C-alpha cells in the first residue's frame, strides 16, 4: 500500500502500516472505538483519550485510569496522550501510560477549551515554548517509547509560533509533531491554514502529521501536495463512520469504496455494545453507547425513531429489542 499519499510511516521506533491515524478524543476513543477504527477502518495508529496530569497523584489506582488505558493486542500500536503543564507530573503519567501499554506518548498542546486555557494546559502551552521543551524533556527521560507533540499553529491569530514550539519539542526529544492547522481560537468548520502547516514542516526534520479536516480525500491530497506532510490525523469525523478510514485509503490508492451491508452494520453495532458493557457495566455502558448510534444507522430508513428509541435503553435486554426492531424492519 504505497502511493504519494498513503504509505508506511515510522514514529521513532514504532512502525505504522499506513499514515492515516485516529486522533485522541475525550469521551470517545476508548478501547472499543479504537479496535473498530483499527480492524474495520484499517488506520495505522489509534490513540486513547487524554489522561490528565494536573496533580502529583493524578489517576493513581483509579478505575477511570484503568479504563482509559486498557488496551488489547489487536489494536496495536496505540498512542496515549498526556494533558498537563507540570514537567514532573507529566513525566509520571507518561511513565504509567507506557507501563499500561502505550507504544507512543503524546503531549497535548492543542486542546482549546476554556478549562485548558485557564489551567495553562492544552493550547495555552503554545504561549510557552520553553515550558513545552521542559515537559517533553521530562517525559522522554521517563519512558523508552517515542514521544510526540499534538499542537496548533498558535494560541491565537496574533501568536502563531508553531515553528518555535515545534523546535522546543524536537530539541528536547520529540520524534514527531501532529499539527492542527488552525489556531486555538478557530472553530471546526473554519478553513485550515496549509501555508502555516507547510512552514512547520519545512522547519523540522521529524515527521509532521496534519490534523483538521483530514476526513476528506481532497484535503489529504492538498495537505501532502501543498504542505508536504507525512501523515494525517482524523478526529471528529471518525465518530460518524467506522468505515471512514477504509474508504479514505481506498480513494487515495485507487481502490474500491466499501458500502457495508445491513447485516454488517448490525453485527458491528452488537460487537461494539458488548465491549462497551464489558468496560463500563450494563447501566453506564447503555448510556455511553448512545453517542455511537449514528455510526451504524446514518442514512437508513427509520433512523430518527431508532435514535429516539436508543436514547431510552437502560439494559442489554432493551438494547436487543430496539436493535432487533430497527434492523428487522430494514430487512422487510
Describe this protein's structure:
The chain is of the alpha/beta class and 332 residues long. It has 2 domains: 9-253, Aldolase class I (TIM Barrel); 262-331, Non-ribosomal Peptide Synthetase Peptidyl Carrier Protein, Chain A (Orthogonal Bundle), CATH 1.10.1200.80. 44% of the residues lie in helices and 15% in strands. It contains 14 helices and 10 strands. The chain has helices spanning 31-41, 63-68, 87-100, 114-119, 129-142, 162-171, 194-202, 217-227, 244-253, 262-280, 282-289, 293-297, 303-310, 316-331, and strands at 9-11, 14-16, 20-22, 46-53, 78-84, 104-109, 147-152, 176-180, 208-211, 231-234. The strands form 2 sheets. It has an 8-stranded parallel β-sheet with strand order 3-10-9-8-7-6-5-4. Strand 8, helix 7 (194-202) and strand 9 (208-211) form a beta-alpha-beta unit. Helix 3 runs parallel beside helix 5. It is globular, with a radius of gyration of 20 Å. The model has no long low-confidence stretch (mean pLDDT 92).
Report a brief summary of the structure:
With 332 residues, this protein is an alpha/beta fold.
